[in-house]
Each structure stands twice: as structure tokens, then as C-alpha cells.
Amino acid sequence: MSENNEPGPDEGPTPVLAVVGRPNVGKSTLVNRIIGRREAVVEDRPGVTRDRVSYDATWNGRAFTVVDTGGWDPDARGLAERISAQAEVAVSVADAVLFVVDAGVGITDADAAVVKVLRRSGKPVVLAANKVDDARTEAEAAGLWNLGLGEPQPVSALHGRGSGDLLDAVLRALPATPQESFEELGGPRRVAIVGRPNVGKSSLLNKLVGSDRVVVDDAAGTTVDPIDELVVLREREWRFIDTAGIRRRVREASGQEYYASLRTATAIERAEVAVLVVDGSQPISEQDQRIIATVQEAGRALVIAFNKWDLVDEERRYYLDREIERDLVRVQWAPRINLTARTGWHIDRLVPALDAALGGWETRVGTGALNSFLGRLVAEHPHPVRGGKQPKILFGTQPSTSPPTFVLFTSGKLEASYLRFVERRLREEYGFVGTPVLIQQKPRE
Ligand code: GDP
Ligand code: GDP
């Protein structure tokens, strides 16, 4: 697609690679190299929780998600404890783990602690022997064979040496599709329940699962989570993603915030539709907004559930309406439902909202219909003239759904405000309830 636009269409959930290792072995440098960007990961300040924990990557045409666990600082005591706690988080959310060690330093106690966790998990591991900047230091990597994690991949995150071979090894370790093949038609819909702590996620889940629950443990021999639950609602099966992350909270008491955001990001990645649970009795928060942004960036469908409606009185209702107008403008398209998880009031509204959102997410507009729509739009509302020239939409297609993604072939570059206008009109015409809509432009040279 054109270089000056959003990333290409996301074709659904991608497998997750978690990067773990001691501080200073070069994880951030390596993550930056893998995602092909320089700015992303490095700028954090110590002790500050990163917003962003997962990044899109592609290698040889295969897309995957990189999760950097470096920003998580649990308050476990020693370094080895901290690192192994971090590794536990990583294996619980990832399909494969990239374990980074500093080849020049060799194996430390902290590394050994990670190895234990990785072995126990049974997840595929790629061992990166970093800081092998030249042929001379390559021999140091060989010493890492005795970790029992397979062939060490010598790499220089800093200079890029060996990174192609490392990524090849990563692709071999990642399953073709995350966890299972979710892409199969007719499989249960995948739903992630997300939201801040204490908004009522587990109460909602409990009400939904009732007694119709099947706990799905993904892979034999792995640690117990993530665990999905299959639930029959309205005579159809639904898969609730990573419910272990909702139910278990005691163990993650330390580093909880980071852990929660990591889990949220990966659950969204694995889901088709996210249900953002908001406490209706509390002001809409920054954190709610961040989760919404994560859903949008991942290109997933979204439903917003205002829970604890039993606590919402006239006055609160007044303010909530204003907060919705102010804080949720970006996602005006998301179906909103008010419910009380504690009693089950309005719980039955969830499935219709999910259906609406998934319907919008999968809407496809035929090329003929799209172009007659675009023709009318351009005639009624041409792009403003800029510098004596008038950018124009020549032709459009919708190459993919989930989320709906449009490509506009243009003469001249359309302004962002005009693209927003096109999006608004597309939504008026075709609905696209509950879904982000991506519009890319390809200006003719
Ligand atoms: P992290 O704490 O594991 O995320 O490590 P960083 O990515 O922040 O890197 C720690 C230090 O090691 C930085 O000064 C990097 O520039 C340096 N470093 C990272 N990768 C390499 C490498 O391949 N070779 C060399 N010589 N230095 C590296
Ligand atoms: P989670 O952290 O998002 O999973 O939230 P929980 O489901 O554990 O709920 C947090 C607290 O809110 C608990 O004390 C629940 O009983 C309470 N709660 C959950 N749903 C409702 C509701 O609809 N109304 C009221 N009043 N309280 C609720």
C-alpha cells in the first residue's frame, strides 16, 4: 500500500512472540530491529509503565505480534525472581518465546531461572545469543548449547548481523495461526472481555457462563493459561478468550498494571470482537480510552458495556451522557449497552450487540456499488483545491474485511479531513456498526 498511510489490512489474529531476558541483554534493541522501527520501544523511563507492549511485525510475508516484556517490573525481590516472574507472564500469553542472552556474558543465575520457566511451559523457544557483532565473537554463542534450548542463534541486534536467520528461526517456532486455527469458518466467535480492574468483568463472565461452560485448555503440556471458555449463548457457541486473565488476580498482585495491559493487548489480538466493560457509575477514564485505542489499532470489532447500571442515578446519567459525547467520539460507531452484571439485568443485550459489531466488521461492499457511491460523493463534495490542484478519488476497492479496509486510487494526495469525511459517508451508507474502518490512499504518480 502507499507508504504514507496506516499499516496494511490486518487479516485477523496473528501468533504472538514474547521477548524475554535480563536487563541490558539487548531486548529492546532486538524488538526494534524485528519491527523495523527505531523509535518505538527505547524511550521509556525507568519505573514508568509502558502503554504499549505489543507491536506488529512481518517477516517473509508472515505477520506476527511481538510482545516486549521488558517494561514490566514486578516487585519480586531479587533479579532472578523478577525475571522469572516476567518469563511466566510471557509464556502465559505467547505462542512462542524469544529468549535473549548476552553471548559475551554467558549464562547468569537469572538466565538459569528463566530457562526453568521456559522448559516447564513447553512453549517453543528461540534462543538468541545477542551482541555477536562479528565473526570473532561467534564462538561465544556455541557455549549456549548446553542450556538445552536448542541451537543458539548468534545475532547482533545493534548492527543487524544474523537477524535474518534469527527471524527465520522465529517463524519456524511460531504456529501457523495463533493457538489454534481460528480462521476456520463456522468456528465459535472469539470474544475478549476487557476493562479496568473492578469494573465487573468476572461478574459478567460468571453470569454469561452460567452452567453451560466448557473450559478449553489450549495445548497439552503447557502451563494452564491462557484458558478460553466455550459458552453457548442464544444457541450458538462463543469462545471467551483468556478468561484465566480475568479470573486469576491474586498471583499477579505485583506488577499488576503491566500484567493487565499485556493480557488485554494479547486477548484483543486473539479475539474478533472486544467487549469493553466500563463502570457506569464512575467517570470514563484514561485507561478505558487506552483500551479502546488498542482495539482500534488491532482492527477488532468493539462493543462497550456500561456495567453497574444499578448504581447509575439521574445525575450520574446526565454526566455519563456528556462523557460519552466528549470521550467516546472516536468510537461513536461502537454499540453501547447498559447492564448490571451482578443481577443479570440486560445481559441478554450482549449477543445482539456482538452480532451487530461482527456484522459490521465483516461487511463487504462490491466494487461496482462502491464506485457509484464514490462517484456521487465526489460530485457532491469535491476535495478542496490546494495549490491550484484538485486531488480526486479516481477509483476505490475494498480488498478486505475484518476490519473493512478500503483503498482509494487518487490523483494527488487527499487531506486527512477529507479521508475522515469519506469514512463518515461510508458509515452513513453502509453502517459498519461496531468496527474500525481503514481507508488507504494510493496517489497516482
Ligand atoms: P534490554 O534492557 O534488554 O532491553 O537491552 P537494550 O536493548 O536496552 O540494550 C542494552 C545495551 O546493549 C544498549 O546499550 C545497547 O545499545 C546494547 N546492545 C544491544 N544489542 C547489542 C548488540 O547486538 N551488540 C552490542 N555491541 N551492543 C548491543
Ligand atoms: P473485575 O475486576 O472487572 O473482574 O470486576 P469484578 O467482577 O470482580 O467486580 C468488582 C466488584 O464490582 C465486585 O465487588 C462486584 O460484586 C461488583 N460488581 C460487579 N458488577 C456489578 C454490578 O452490576 N453492580 C454493582 N453494584 N456491583 C457490581
From TrEMBL:
GO molecular function: GTP binding; ribosome binding
One Pfam family cited in the UniProt record for this chain: KH_dom-like
Subunit (UniProt): Associates with the 50S ribosomal subunit.
Entry keyword Repeat: yes
Record function comment: GTPase that plays an essential role in the late steps of ribosome biogenesis.
Keyword Phosphoprotein in annotation: no
UniProt entry keywords in alphabetical sequence: GTP-binding, Nucleotide-binding, Repeat, Ribosome biogenesis
SUPFAM superfamilies reported in the protein's UniProt record: P-loop containing nucleoside triphosphate hydrolases (SSF52540)
Source species of the chain: Marmoricola endophyticus
Residue span, EngA-type G domain: 15-178, 189-362
Positions with a binding annotation for GTP 1: 21-28, 68-72, 130-133
TM region positions: none
UniProt-annotated binding residues for GTP 2: 195-202, 242-246, 307-310
Protein name: GTPase Der
